[in-house]
Each structure stands twice: as structure tokens, then as C-alpha cells.
Amino acid sequence: MIQRTQFFKEIAMDSKLNRRSPFGFGRKRLKYMMSIEATEAKNESDLATSESSKSSKIPNNGKSPRDAEDLVTEEHFWQSLFKGIYRDKKALVGLVMVFLFILIALLAPWIVPHDPYAVDMEKVLIAPNSTYVIGTDFLGRDILSRIIYGARISLVIGLVPTLISLAIGTFLGMVSGYFGGKIDYLIMRLADVCMAFPSLLLAMVVMYTLGASLFNIFIALSIVNWGSTSRIVRAQTLSIKEKEFVEAARSIGVGKFKILWRHIFPNCIPSLIVLFTLSVPEAIMSEASLSFLGVGAQPPTPSWGLMISRGKEFLFSSPWVAITPGVAIFLVVIAFNFIGDGLRDALDPYTKH
Amino acid sequence: MNETVVEIQNLKTYFETEKGFNPAVDGVSMILESGKIMGLVGESGSGKSMTAMSILGLIPKPFGQILPESKILFEGDDLTKLSEKELAKIRGNKIAMIFQEPMTSLNPVYTIGKQLMEPLRLHKNLSKREAKVLALKYLEQVRIPDAAKRFASYPHQLSGGLRQRVMIAMALTCEPKLIIADEPTTALDVTIQAQILELLKDIQVRLNTAILFITHDLGVVAELCDDVCVMYAGEVVEKCDADRLFETPMHPYTIGLLKSLPKIDDDVEELYSIEGMVPNLIHVPTGCRFAPRCDKSKRICFDALPPRILIDKQHEVLCWQYDEGAWSNE
Amino acid sequence: MSEILLSAKNLKKYYQVSNNTLFSSNANKGIVKAVDDITLDIPKGKTLSLVGESGCGKSTLGRTLINLIDPTSGEVLFNGKNIHAFNAQEEKAFRKSVSIIFQDPYASLNPRMKVKDLIGEPLLTHGMKAKKERYARVYELMKITGLKEEYANRYPHQFSGGQRQRIGIARALALNPSLIVCDEAVSALDVSIQAQILNLLKKLQREFNLTYLFISHDLSVVRYVSDEVYVMYLGQIVEAGKPKALFEEPIHPYTQFLISAVPIADPKKRDRKKLILEGDLPSAINPPQGCRFNTRCPYATEICTNVCPELVTEDDRKFACHHPLG
User: Fold this and answer.
1) In what residue span(s) does the ABC transporter domain sit (chain C) (predicted)?
2) Could you read off the pLDDT tens digit of each residue along chain A, which spans 353 residues?
3) Where in chain A are the domains?
């Protein structure tokens, strides 16, 4: 009931803001409201069975509709998430593309037509043909094979530093939000410092200090991106910690870190998932940029950014060398963004169908 | 003089959900008369708010549908058949609505004066000065102290009670034939609620409008309403005037509700409680919707829809008990 | 005189608020006296109610009494011992013996936990690590509160308000507490469900000899459940007494107005003399001088605006008023 009145309020508020009339209910929202009502009614009927001492009086004509209904469990978070993606064509396309990307990265050694490292100076800059589907580069290496191997690097770069920075950001954000006071101040100023620099610039500074290598990209990207995560998680923690269930946990004497782990963290997961899917392409882009600028992966690593960087000299004579890895980056990034958008919509009650 | 303002005939509003049709409002009929307050009382999920929204044509069309046999007659028109454009002219003009939480219906970035003047200037083509004079008059009519000062306040600067008064003033600006009040005092404290109820009563006497008052609080109904419809699971199960309802309730649901109310003016040893909960409307029980929770139910209640029985020409009740033939045959 | 379980002495909780706007910071600092010098005793096995309008500080008082909020000053004694001087072990024991049921059954249950884990959480926190033993107790609690066993694996959003409140009650009961704070525990429920929950609470009190601190704005409910009622206004207790006496012959004018404002479900009483309080609750920031109620009180005289009346005890009633009624 509360929830519903809440929605009523929000609906009324929104419509007022938009149209200055309390009568402009959005369809989707109303539908959502109705679905809540339906859920409520359904659950109430559940109890009706449990509590009605008269269930014996109900004529049982073969099947009892209520029993059947007891089995219908309301969809939970994951279900609604997958359902949301399934219904969203764009997100579905993204999901398929990401799946293909991962599959290619995993199976790279078995599916490449040529050795990506094999230099053949006699076959330099060959235009796409039947043997070299998208041609060769200035050292006569097969570009397709290099792009396939490059997928591995992009996958690892996309996942590992993102997960690390997400973990750091989540932990610091939760601690900051929950404990408040000086700890909060300290962590947030640190985050401010991190966020004050353009992330690419900061990553470059880290890379210059540590030296250019793939491993150092991990470190650089992990350090650079935790700031925004911690901000978001902190904001979430601040709102969740005011919820009554946290107070309820406190009232029975649950410890502070247990509250963080058991009550606050699970309620941050939805936004973390969205954040994750949107951070992965960012990390891939950063790696490509760093490698393009020469402070990331070093030759002969088949990194997409590096390949563009090396190919740009031949952009007019042999455009396939630089453009094809660019297309690969574009496709992967957009696929992840599709999923991210889809997830965000799926988890947002307002845009829910 | 009480004349019919709105006549609702067999209103059915169904919602399409993933699991089937939800008959949120299922065959509601009532007559709203000028100068009378009709109380629509029921628990959450009983369809009372949806009835109000059907009158205003606010049911979202593809999911919610008012079935074609429904009729809502207002000034010779059937509101269910009007176009969106025609409805917009009636809403907030001839039929006004007051919501539970006034804060959300007021725009936080404009002063209440500006918000009051807008409909006046829009519908009545008044100049700014004329509109202000009139708006102040309405603010005084809802007994806002220091109306001239409040005129320049923003909604958040007012207390809940004052905001609700402003909402009522806004509803009055267009001199509506019908005011629909959806739980207008639920969010307020009792002392403030008493003020607002007093005000509504005063307005109804002075302006002779019809008021449809939606609430879950039987106490408020007893204080304010002339007639009452008790809703349960989308149906009106009992309809009569307020005095009669509280003196001789007939439907087992009404009887149960009245018995389960704690009383402020009497000591009660043990409250009666209706077991179970409101049924899921998507799987409507075949017979009477209240039968599974009713302590008088017999087999017939589960098997067939109960008849609508009119007692003493003024007391309508939806229950098998009062169909003497069928009841004694069981 | 029955045994006292919990008592508060001169309890105060002040909040400092600074009214910061974008361009003027600290323009007017104020102090909200949410709980202002409250002394009360909760007898064992009884229901003591705190009643008042929103913003009167009743919820803050309830939470301060069980040490969920630190008081500004004053002390709370539980079984005669000061709860603010507890060591870790005593604190843990105290947490076991008090629990709280919240108003909003939608907000007070973690949406990502299953029912059995929600009810089992207090048990787990207090050392019942073995799953089998814990779930056995959970099922027992579910049975006591009228929940079906097969609900154990569901999530809170799959329940209606009434069922959720039952889950909340089961949770509160898990550790065999002696005191349960019911903070508007039935305010969000429909009438017929409210009666079910009230009766359940009463039944549990008889069975387990529970003490309730019942916080509510609904006077009818308070009359039904209470053994003793405290009426609060702007952080202070204005009147206290047994429900029958208090509701039928209020001494403090505020109580009188409050009772008179409650709608009665009987049209025949419609024309009774109703007292309607003018104006709104004054802001809790810098409340009125003298008697807090003087700005709205029809009987107020000069002394009321200057001197804050003491809470005096007469027989088994208490009141704080310069011009008591009757």
C-alpha cells in the first residue's frame, strides 16, 4: 500500500512538473502501478488460503486455482533482469555480439587462419583477398588473425581492471557512506583528486612512471576509475542506510561490517551491474587510446589500439590496416553499451514494461 | 434541491496484466447528487480509486479498458464515450479532484498564488489583477489565515494542512459540479483532518456541489458522508445512506469491518477480525468474492454470483443471505 | 505496583539544524528538541503507549529508549542498570532482550533476503550458527505468527502488507525478547488486517509475557491495546494515565482536542460537540516559550506563555498544565 501511494505521489509529481496538470499520468507508470496492485492482490489471496479456516467449504471442482497460483512465484531481480534484456531488442543484439566477442577471444588460437606474429616481408600491405581476408599489415602479418588475438587483450583489459576498480570503489564507497565523518571526508577528497584529472591523462602519468606494458595498464586503469564508482556506491549507501531494514538489523545487534555486507552490498548490486557493463567499454577504449599513444601495449602485441596507431601511416594507401581494428573496437564498445542501456532500463521501475 | 450530477451505470474497468484480466472495477453503479457527499469506502485493492479515475477518463487506454456496457452520464454526455479532447475540458473544470498528498500535486517551483491564478486566467480569460482578486477570495474561502501573505508562498513553505486547503481552493476555482476527493485527509494528523473535514462540509453546504469522497476510514465516512458505497474486490457490496449503514449494516463484510474497528469512546476486550485477505482479482472466485472470508457463507455463495437485493427501497446489498428462497433451500 | 522493566530519567535528544540555503549558510541555526526532558517507567508485562501527532518526537523517544539513537543527556535504566554504561557483553544481552517492529513493512525488510533468512538473522547474529537448529526455530516462529511454512523461501516483495508485518513480528520475537517497541506497527495496514495484527500482538503478549512500548498516532488503536497512555506534544509529555480515564476525562486541553478530533464511526454522534483546534503544529525548531501548547490553547493565560508547566502526578495520572480541566 505504501509503495503504491508512493507511486501515486511520484506520478502526480511528475505529471505536474511536466504538464502542470495532475491529470497527465504516463501510461507506463500507471501500468506499473497496476501491476503492483495485481501483485498485492495475488499475495493477499495466498494468505486467504492459509488463513481461511473455511477452505474445506470451498467446492473443489477438479482443480483449485489458488494452489496453482501458489506455485507462481513472482519474478525476482535476476529474472526481471533477463526478461528486461530479452524484451529489449537492442540489448539482445548487444548480448549476442558480446557473446561472440568472448567466444572469439577464448577460441582465438584455434580459429585464426594465420599466425598473428609471423612476419613475412614479401607479403607486406596486401589488400584483402581470399587468403588474407582483410589483408596484411606493413610487416606482412595477417590482420584478421591479429584482430582475433587482439580480442583476448581487449577482453582481459575490459574485465580485470574494471572489476578491480569496481571492487575498490565499492568498498571505499560503502565505508565512506556508512561510517561518515572523517573517514568519509578522507575517502571522498581522495576520490575528488582522482576524478579531478582527466582519466586518460592520469593513466598516462601512471604508465610513464611505471613503464609501458600491458600489466601496467591493469594497474593504471584500476587506480584511475574507482573514484566515480565510490561516489555512486556512497550515494546508494547513504540512502540504503536510512532504510528501516538497516535500522532493524542494528536493533538486533548486527555488526557494522556485517550490515555492509549483508544488507547494503546486495542492494547496490543492480547499479553495480549497470556500472560494470558501462565501464567495460570505457576500459577497452582507454587501453586502445593508451596503446595508440604508445604508452600502452608494446609491439608486437596485437592490441587494437596499437594496430590503429601503426596503421595510421598507411591510412590513405592501405586503409584496411587502421580501419579494421577501429571497427572491432567500435563494435565491442557499442555492444557493451547496448547491454548497459538495456540493463539500466530493465532495472528502472519506471521504464519497465 | 438535490439533482443528479453524475450517474454511473454498470461501470466495468478491466486491466490487462501478464497473468490475465484484472477486473479492478466490476459493475459499479451509483448516482452522485448535488449537495450530497457520497462516501466510497473500501480497503486497498478494492477498486475505489480506479472508480474515480474511470470517471475522469484517466484509465490508461491500452492496458486498462472501460467495457462498452459501462455508462457514466454527466450533463447528458456519456463520459466513457468522449474523446480525450472533450474529457480534458471537463476535467479540472466541471469535475475537480483532490489528492491524498497535496505536495505532489502542487508545482514546487511556482508560488501558490500563481498556480491558483493560472486556471482562472485560462478558463475565464481574466486579467492578472482580476485573477488575483478572485484567487485571494478562494484562499479566504478555504480559511487560510493571512491569505495575502500566503499568496506569495511556495508549496514547501506551507504545512500539510495548509497545502490541502490550497488544493481545495484550486479545485474550487473552476466552480466544479463534482469534486472527487481521493483520501484527502489520510496523510494528515487528526487535528488537521478535523479541520479539513469541517471545511469540506462547509463548502458542500455553501456551494451545493456533489462530492465523491474516497476513503478507507469508516470514522470519516460517519462524520462526513450522506450516502455510502462499500466496495470489496471491485464490486459495491452495500449501498445506502450513512445513518442506515452504521445502524443496520447488512453485508457480512460491512458488519465485519465495523466490528474490527477499535473504538475511542468504548473499551473493547477483543476485536473481531475478518480472517484472510482480499482475493486476487485475476482469479476471481466463481461465486461471491467475499465468500472465502465470510463466516456465514454457504455452498451457494461459492457456486453462484450473489444477487443485488434492494431492501426497503433504499438499502442495496450484494449477498445471498437476503434472497430468502435460495438461502433457506441450502 | 508491578515491576519496572525500563525507565527513562530526564531523557533529552536535541538535534542541531542549520538552515543552509545556497547563498546563505548558517543563516539561522536552530535546535530541535525532539525529546525534551522525559521521565517514564515501563512496567513489566504491560503495554505502554506513546501517542501524539507527527513531529511530536514519539518515534525518536522510542528509539532513544532502546539505544538506537544516542541521547543528548539523561539516562535509561533496563532492569535497573544504565544502558549507556553497558560493556560489550551486556550490550549484546540487551540487544537480545529488546526488539522493534516498524511501521512500514515494505521498508523494514531487506528486499534481497529470503523470509527464512530474515527471521533467522537475529538468531544468526546471536550465535545460533547451525542451520538446522536455526531453521527449526524459524519455522516455529512462522507458525506462531500465522505464516505458512512454504513461504520460507520467498522474498518480501511477494507478500502483502499484513503478511510482511507478520514476518516483522516473527523476527522481533526470534530471540525471546522481554520488550518490543511497536513503532506505528499497524498504521500502514487496512482495517481488517489491522485487527488481525492487533489481536496477534495481544495474543503473543499473553503467551510470552511481553512488554510493549506501543507508538502510534491512532488514538482508537491506543485505547484498545494500552495499559497506560502517554500523550506527547512537541517533545514533551503533556498527560499520562490509564486509557479509560484518559480518554473519558482528559485533563490536559491538548488531549481533549486530540480525542475530540478523532472521527467516530457512528453518524448518531455526528452532532456531538466537536472541538476543533485552530492552526498547525508549531515548528519544532525553536518551539514556543512557556507551555508548548500555549499558541493553540484556548485556555492559555499569561503564565502559560512564560512558565513551562511541570509534569505533576495525581493518583495514577500525570499532567503538565497550568489550567487542568475538570
Assistant:
1) 6-259
2) 334 444 334 333 333 333 333 333 333 334 444 444 444 444 444 433 333 333 333 333 333 333 323 333 445 667 777 777 777 888 889 999 999 999 999 998 888 888 888 887 787 777 788 778 788 888 888 888 999 998 988 888 888 889 999 999 999 999 999 998 899 999 999 999 888 888 888 888 888 888 877 788 888 888 888 888 999 999 999 998 888 889 888 888 888 899 999 899 988 888 898 889 888 888 888 888 888 888 878 888 888 888 888 888 888 888 888 889 899 999 999 999 998 888 877 776 554 43
3) 2-74, 86-347
Residue B323 Cα distances to B309, B330, C255, angstroms: 7, 11, 48
Bridge partners of C99?
C180
**A 26-65 → B contacts, CB under 8 A:** 27, 30-31, 34-35, 37-38, 40-48, 51-55, 57-59, 65
Question: How close, in Å, is residue A51 to chain C by CA atoms?
Answer: 8
Instruction: Confirm if C26 and C18 have CB atoms less than 8 A apart.
Output: yes
For C44-177, where are the E strands, in sequence order? 47-51, 73-78, 81-82, 98-101
HSE at residue C163, side-chain half, CA atoms within 13 A, is: 28
Residue B43 has its nearest CB partner, among C192, C247, C262, at C192
Pick the CATH number of C4-319 from 3.40.50.620, 2.40.400.10, 3.40.50.300, 1.10.540.10: 3.40.50.300
Instruction: Report whether A123 contacts A156 (CB < 8 A).
Output: no
**Cell numbers given for C281:** 503544529
Going by C-alpha positions, the residue among C197, C151, C295 that lies closest to residue B273 is C197
Q: Which residues of B touch C234 (CB under 8 A)?
A: none
How close does chain B come to C314, measured CA to CA in Å?
23
CA B4/CA B31 separation, integer angstroms = 7
Contacts of residue A17, Cβ cutoff 8 Å, sequence gap at least 6: B107
Say whether residue B69 is in contact with chain C using an 8 A CB cutoff.
Answer: no
Task: ipTM value, please give it.
Answer: 0.87
User: Domain A86-347 carries which CATH code?
Assistant: 1.10.3720.10
Rounded to an integer, what distance in angstroms lies between the CA atom of residue B297 and that of residue B302? Answer: 8
Determine contact, residues C197/C102, Cβ cutoff 8 Å. no
| B176 neighbors B209 (Cβ within 8 angstroms) | yes
Residue A211 CA to residue A264 CA, distance in Å, equals 39
Torsion of CA A91, A96, A98, A102, to 10 degrees: 160
Instruction: Calculate how close chain A gets to B166, using CA atoms only, in Å.
Output: 14
pLDDT in tens, B217-252: 999 999 999 999 999 999 999 999 999 999 999 999
Answer whether B193 touches C (CB < 8 Å). Answer: yes
Alpha-carbon span B105 to A22, nearest angstrom:
6
Question: How many CB atoms within 10 Å of residue A185?
Answer: 11
Report the DSSP pairing between strands C179-183 and C98-101.
parallel
Signed CA dihedral, B90, B91, B92, B94: sign only: positive
Min Cα–Cα distance to chain B from C57, Å: 14
Q: Specify the pTM.
A: 0.80
| Contact criterion met (CB < 8 Å) for A2 and C106 | yes
For chain C, the domains span 4-319
Instruction: Give chain A positions within 8 Å (CB) of B95.
Output: none
Q: Which residue from C160, C263, C269 is facing B217, i.e. has the nearest CB?
A: C263
Between chains, do A39 and C163 touch, taking CB under 8 Å as contact? no
Exposure string (b/e) for A315-339, b if CB count within 10 Å is 16 or more?
A: eeebebbbbbbbebbeebbebbbbb
Cell triple for residue C312? 505533576
Partners of B213 in beta bridges: B39, B181
